[in-house]
Write a structure and sequence with these properties.
Largest sheet: 2 strands, antiparallel
CATH class of the largest domain: Mainly Alpha
Number of domains: 4
CATH superfamily of the largest domain: Fido-like domain
Strand order of the largest sheet: 1-2
Shape: globular
Order of helices and strands: HHHHHHEEHHHHHEEHHHHHHHHHEEH
CATH topology of the largest domain: Fic-like fold
CATH architecture of the largest domain: Orthogonal Bundle
Structural class: mainly alpha
Helix content: 55-70%
Strand content: 5-15%
């Protein structure tokens, strides 16, 4: 009854006729505005004897060769909420450890181009591990990611490219609430099936956005129009985003807040509309490497752009997907072309709370963007490691396929990979001419010939399902 009354109020509000769904969204926004904001614990450092703490810190560094601040920042960049639970060095209190750490960070940090709403810049501390990690990323994502796999054909590399785009589209959407299994989403993309619900629509839109970035947008300069165009692709036909909200910046009337599902608190209130309008122009300038600021490594800068979109939150919805797409756009534009093979969101999805808190730490701990940078850089490294594990596994599996498939069959790599895919996906899995074309980037005629030959050899059997012909494994291989 209470809900009904509220709905009635909104239906007649200011003479506007609202749909039931719109009313629910209004009520949800009203409810969210009464959520508490997440506030980081700020320890009271007034009781610290500053001189004594610094002397003890210098003595410890001379003895061990590592400062307290280094130990609290490497291998993980820690905030007080983690440090207070650690065993402090002998003779130190947890408060003294945090005080010394903060002093060193303040003195060593440098301002970035990104401003908070109070007009102060976000700061960045280059960690000791940074150069080593950036060097590895430079080597691999600049073109030599396949160096250990020299025998891989171009067709297999194309398949890894397609996989990377598909996996990123799925995981990036799931981070923003898309509720579907990876297998169902992957089948939808490969089979070129129309999305059946909002979750699938989010994923297919993300997939199209990644494709257009890889094929076209990486050649273009950033602009407001390009941002709107990309946002419209990401939110096309999204049932929960009104058409008027696609490809436009939010206003103060939209009353947008970012909340944490697990903590049930508001973790970010985006800056006011006037600040957004002013800063988005600076964002475009920075993304185009204009303005004369000193050199920032492209990996670091791509991470900064990702963070900046998250902080500004320029749209009413889809900001996370948009921020991650901008990350890829910048790196592909700067010739980190193999980055598209690395679905970073699949790694982030394993620790979504850490991802969210990296933003919170950066905003609430003296505008220290190092928290977000440290998290994101290590996720790139993790994605690289997972990519190599995946390729090594596939190379080993390919050898098994070759031993299963008769040598006189004279199958090409595409056909072998297709058989392996069907074997690994299990009973009920199938492929079609269209999906085969999509995965390997070949013509319909070539795809038809490949699948027809597999049928002639007894490896596949075809069945009609509506307007599609689907190819399934025969018992010749399914029992292997």
């Amino acid at each position: 009854m209470y809900i009904t009354c509220i709905l009635n109020v909104y239906i007649i509000h200011e003479g506007i006729e609202y749909t039931y769904k719109t009313c629910i969204l209004h009520i949800y926004t009203l409810h969210m505005n009464h959520f508490e904001s997440l506030k980081l614990e700020k320890p009271n450092l007034s009781r610290i004897d500053i001189g004594k703490a610094m002397k003890k810190s210098m003595a410890l560094q001379q003895k061990e060769g590592k400062s307290i601040a280094y130990q609290m920042s490497e291998p993980n960049y820690l905030y007080w909420d983690k440090i207070k639970h650690l065993e402090p060095p002998k003779g130190f209190s947890a408060l003294e450890v945090w005080f010394v750490t903060k002093q060193v960070r303040r003195m060593s940090s440098r301002p970035t181009f990104i401003k908070a709403e109070n007009e102060k810049p976000f700061n960045f501390l280059k960690l000791v591990c940074t150069d080593e990690l950036l060097h590895r990323i430079d080597l691999e994502t600049g073109g030599s990611i396949f160096a250990p796999y020299q025998l891989l054909s171009d067709q297999k590399k194309q398949k890894f490219l397609t996989r990377g785009i598909i996996e990123e589209a799925i995981a990036s959407s799931q981070l923003e609430g898309a509720n579907t299994t990876r297998k169902a989403a992957k089948d939808m993309i490969i089979q070129k099936r129309e999305p059946r619900n909002r979750s699938e629509r989010m994923i297919i839109n993300n997939y199209k956005a990644m494709q257009v970035i890889e094929q076209d947008y990486k050649k273009k300069q950033m602009s407001i129009d390009l941002m709107f165009e990309l946002h419209r692709i990401l939110t096309d036909q999204d049932s929960e985003i009104p058409s008027g909200d696609r490809g436009r910046f939010r206003t103060d009337k939209d009353q947008i807040v970012v909340h944490s599902q697990s903590k049930r608190k508001i973790v970010h209130t985006p800056p006011k509309e006037a600040f957004l309008k002013k800063e988005i122009s600076r964002f475009v300038q920075y993304a185009n490497d204009e303005g004369g600021e000193r050199f920032v490594h492209p990996i670091i800068k791509a991470i900064f752009l990702h963070f900046w979109i998250g902080y500004l939150h320029p749209f009413t919805d889809g900001n996370g997907r948009f921020a991650r797409a901008i990350f890829y756009w910048y790196l592909l534009k700067h010739r980190y072309w193999t980055m598209i093979y690395l679905p970073i969101s699949t790694v982030i999805k394993k620790s979504p709370e850490q991802y969210s808190m990296a933003y919170v730490y950066a905003e609430q701990d003296d505008l220290d963007i190092t928290y977000f940078y440290d998290y994101h850089l290590k996720k790139i490294i993790q994605a690289l490691d997972e990519f190599h594990s995946y390729v090594n596994r596939k190379v080993a599996e390919n050898k098994e396929i070759d031993s299963l498939i008769s040598k006189e069959s004279n199958l090409n790599d595409r056909q072998k990979q297709s058989i392996h895919y069907l074997m690994s996906e299990g009973e009920g899995s199938f492929t079609t001419v269209s999906s085969y074309m999509s995965v390997y980037g070949i013509s319909r005629l070539t795809a038809s010939k490949d699948l027809h030959k597999l049928g002639e050899l007894g490896y596949l059997q075809s069945r009609r399902s509506g307007k599609y012909i689907r190819y399934y494994l025969t018992h010749k291989l399914s029992n292997s």
